[in-house]
Amino acid sequence: MNLQREMKKTLCILMAGGKGERLYPLTKARAKPSVRFGGIYRIVDFTLSNCLNSDIRRIYVLTQYRSVSLDRHIRLGWSIFNHELGEFIECIPPQQRNVDRWYRGTADSIYQNIHILQRERPERVLILSGDHVYKMNYNDMLAFHLEKKAELTVAGVEVDRKLASAFGIIGSDDEFKIVDWEEKPKDPKPVPGKPDMSFVSMGVYIFNTETLVKGVIADAKNSSSSHDFGKDVVPAMIGRDKVFVHNFKEANNEDGRYWRDIGTLDAYWSANMDLCEKDPPVNLYDPEWLIRTYQEQVPPAKTVSTSSHGSGLLNGTALNSIISGGCIVSGGTVSHSVLSTNVRLEPGSLVEDSVLLDHVTVGARAKIRKAIVDHEAQIPDDFVIGFDLAKDKERFAISPGGVVIVPRGISLG
To answer: Are residues 120 and 256 in the same domain?
Structure first.
């Protein structure tokens, strides 16, 4: 089997049009896939890097909600494909060719773009989501799909059962054929022998094109459908078609199973905090599986000592943290935090267990704990965030997990 040849017969469609309502207010001015993550990246970079590293060079990105920043990021950071060799990445907003409406769901977005499949005529379609953080070689999944002679293969992964109600729960037989599917149940079924874990869909699909087209056309005719793959199309195929599950393993790490759906503020914060660990569960420094992005031209980050009135010499320090280019920690302290580009900390300031997006300024002696501070927020001198949640609630949104959300562009002075 020549996987490289088979992958060239596979078209990738990346879903990037969701509102990301549970990630609000970070998605107030941008689509969820274009939210900054891990200092220098956008969330979508992880899925696109998986594609590039898996030698997938024909990619359509389906956009819809507030897509300007996403379109710009892909244009600046991902225009690396050779069109003369048939390679491309293209952003496609709703065309409304066969219906006069926006996308109603993931399946409907494919239905409204059936003309692409008719034009490209791929043998298979790889459907991905633009809001997950993971490292996956899609060639492994394709090999499994071909070996099983499947009509649909779904990528699955074990997650904590407490979190599993947000996903489709998969049951399979000894041959990995899916025999049961329950979408977002209140009481998820555990993995046999692992009562604290559930086996869930990652929202990664390989369809035979003919099967996909039949499925979305039938779904479009169903007036009671929500037009979603996980809720409608896939469950309708169970027991009727050859539907299999591929057990996810991390690229370049046989024992790795790190996959995060960055769908909520708590999940976003937690995944960023994972990167600050001594041995992070997802390795950003693997030269064999680089995560690509677009970076603006900024000077290197630096920490400096500063004299402060009444406090003597204050050393700028950063421990167990990611500090992006353009950041200046001037006599402040950063601990277990992620700083995006061009963040400035003034003397005596403290940032711990927090995510600061680009162009944030933290004033002298200000303190921030367990917070997400959005783009261009200005924190004044002596201001305190995250130490008194009752007081914070008067000014900010607070996630169910107790993360304080400081909105974009706010000036608290």
So the answer is: yes
Q: Three-state DSSP class for 171?
A: strand
Report the pLDDT value the prediction gives residue 21, as an integer from 0 to 100. 83
* 306 and 270 co-located in one domain: no
CB 35 within 8 A of CB 25: no
Q: What is d(CA 131, CA 129) in angstroms, rounded to the nearest whole number?
A: 6
Pull the structure tokens for residue 387.
């130490």
State the DSSP H helix or E strand holding residue 160, giving kind and residue range, or none if neither.
Answer: strand 152-160
Distance CA 166, CA 148 (A): 28
DSSP 332-350: -EEES-EE-TT-EE-TT-E
Is residue 293, in this structure, part of any structural domain at all? no
- Whole-angstrom distance, CA of residue 90 vs CA of residue 119: 15
Closest-CA residue to 113 (of 245, 13, 241): 13
The domain that contains 117 carries what CATH number? 3.90.550.10
Q: Which of 352, 353, 379 is nearest to 366 (CA)?
A: 379
Residues 142 and 269 in one domain: yes
* 91 and 167 assigned to the same domain: yes
> Does residue 112 fall inside a structural domain?
yes
Residue 154's Cβ-count burial label (10 Å; 0-12, 13-18, 19+) is buried
- Residues facing residue 132 across a β-bridge: 261
Q: Which two tokens stand for residue 205?
A: 């699909």
Q: Give the CA distances from residue 219 to residues 197, 223, 230, 233, 314, in Å, rounded to whole numbers and listed in that order.
A: 31, 8, 12, 7, 63
413 is in an annotated binding site: no
- Listed in sequence order, the DSSP H helices in 334-406 are 389-392
Considering the domain boundaries, does residue 173 fall inside one? yes
- DSSP assigned state of 32: G
pLDDT of residue 413: 67
d(CA 181, CA 170): 5
Residue with tokens 């997802």: 282
Q: 222 and 130, same structural domain?
A: yes
Region 290-301: mean pLDDT is 94
Which residues form the domain of 265?
3-274
**65-120: pLDDT as tens digits:** 888 999 999 999 999 999 999 899 999 988 777 676 788 889 999 999 999 999 99
What does the alpha-carbon distance between residue 225 and residue 238 come to, in Å, rounded to a whole number? 16
Q: Is 294 annotated as a binding residue?
A: no
Is 184 one of the annotated binding-site residues?
Answer: yes
* Residue 183 annotated as part of some ligand binding site: yes
Q: Is 111 annotated as a binding residue?
A: no
